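>> Question from a student workshop board

For tomorrow's exercise we were told to take the sequence and the ligand below, predict the bound structure, and bring the output to class. My setup keeps failing. Could a helper post the expected result so I can at least see what it should look like? The ligand is adenosine-5'-triphosphate.
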Amino acid sequence: MTATVSRRNTVLTIGKYAALAFYLGFALFPLYWLLKIAVTPDTLIFSEGTRLVPSAFTFGNFMTVVFQTDFLAYFWNSLIVSFGTAFFTTLIAAGAGYAFSRFSFAGKRLIIAVMLITQMFPLLMIIAPIYKIVAGLGLLNSLTSLIIVYTAFNIPFATFLMQSFFDAIPKDLEEAAMMDGCSRFQALRKVVFPLTLPGLGATLGFVFTAAWSELLFALMLISKNDAMTFPVGLLTFVSKFSVDWGQMMAAGVLALIPSCLFFLFIQRYLVQGLTSGAVKG
Amino acid sequence: MARIEMRNIAKRYGSVEVLRNVDLEIEDGEFIVLVGPSGCGKSTLLRMIAGLEPITSGDLLIGDERMNDVRPRDRDIAMVFQSYALYPHMDVARNMGFSMEIRGEPSDERQSRIASAARTLGLTALTERLPKALSGGQRQRVAMGRAIVRDPRAFLFDEPLSNLDAALRVEMRLEIARLHRRLGTTMVYVTHDQVEALTLADRIVVLNNGEVQQVGGPLDLYERPANKFVAQFIGSPTMNVIAATGAASTVLLNNGATIELPAPGDASAVVEMGVRPEHIDVVSPDDGDMTGRAEVVEHLGSDTNIYIEVEGVGPLMVREHGNIPAKAGDLVGLRVQPQNVHLFARNGTAL
Ligand SMILES: Nc1ncnc2c1ncn2[C@@H]1O[C@H](COP(=O)(O)OP(=O)(O)OP(=O)(O)O)[C@@H](O)[C@H]1O
Ligand SMILES: [Mg+2]
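>> Workshop helper replied:
Here is what the output should look like for this input. Compare the format with yours to find the bug.
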């Protein structure tokens, strides 16, 4: 009896790990391929097309990308846009999320409904109007335009995310702080804010990645080389007659670095955040 | 220290009336307990005193000043929440000293008050822990500590012991009683628990459906309930209430039994008679006012509870002191102690 149970447990455990391994392999394989092509010498890319490990390595692609293309400028532009977007979106979403979570006011349901509706339209539908608005403001080819547009698009989701984090913080805590002599703002700053750090981290991370990899608007609103963000810049590796795979992949690998660093930095907040959102207290 | 006065206070959420006509004067240093069934508005009343809930109409005075529109932080009142509401990111000492920190009081003064509160509550060894590393009872103590560090004008407690197990509850109850004796500060205490109410209170306020039913000392409420609700709410086990009619100084039960009241009076308005389980005596089957059959007998050691079905009257509960040799199925005689009978009119008021 106990033997069968423990055997079944072993089988279950093995099965679980096998499933995890399969998923991991599936998810990471494209990343591996990216890295592999980035370090494969140009001459071997097509001749050794499907070999898992290339027969020779080179860092030439990275060198070329960093020193002979505008990649660093794109990279810098992307950093500005992504950090700007993440900062402003999170700031606004935190305020709005707090209000949704704690206050009842006229029009609250309506605002929430409208925010949900904005998430329903395919982006393609609104590209033309957005282009017109941005052009009208004279902001074409500026990073500011991207920050504004990205912020506007990310606010609804980020607000709902922040609201759920605020909802998870018991109201009692703020009330206790107010009984202890805090004003509402002090209660927010000294009690609620420290407890929302995981939520802020998660929201920052989410918005940062979204802005970092956004292509459609960047492509539409930016045509000058010196304001290009990194995803648009990647396309410059595609010329009329050929694609420079090696350099493109090298640029891709470099582009992963800030996202990875960012998530490394916020991940301890993030993990806490995801559980504290799910389990109250 | 301050007295708290409520004048004709009402509370509405939209069209829902949660409290009405609340008039209450709480003397300086008094221990007032609010009791009532779930949803009757106890927490709401407490939160209005705290300033966490706006008052729809009426006046709230603390220390003879009108407080309706004063912010919670300026009322100088401490509150212990049912959930304890400890700040999870602060250690025990900082939790307790938080109010002084906010008021910008000097650090050494703060430390000494924290230390003395921690000593009082037996928390000295725990001051550097975070709340998540404390047991339920310890958290409860920290919540109390946070209140007493401040030396406020009044304490408010919203069911502070309801998350503790029975033994700890008794211990903390004594702790609170001791605290009140030592500090002499006005306390308003909300509870579901009769024993807490009866043991802690100088006066008990019984609420039902948003209205004050009766205010009085524990024994007043037990001996002279103002109406049927209070009669059944206070006292455990619950008072038996049976249909009855009255004439002059006699009460007539539905099974034909009569009970002579000790004091002559007019009992003609009576529709129900109440008698507490401890005020019915078990006698031999032919004696007494009526006879019934024991259905369940509970031997508690110090007491015996007997559930008796009396034909024409209904089920009655009887509590006898000590261990009496009755068992289920026995035929028993019951004698009602006439001096301890409560009579109610049709609208429930006591006569
Ligand atoms: N925001 C609100 N809107 C409408 N009704 C409310 C609101 N808050 C509380 N109530 C109602 O007010 C009544 C009193 O609530 P309150 O919390 O004071 O009850 P209570 O006596 O403390 O009950 P319990 O013993 O269960 O804690 C309840 O019937 C509740 O449904
Ligand atoms: Mg309550």
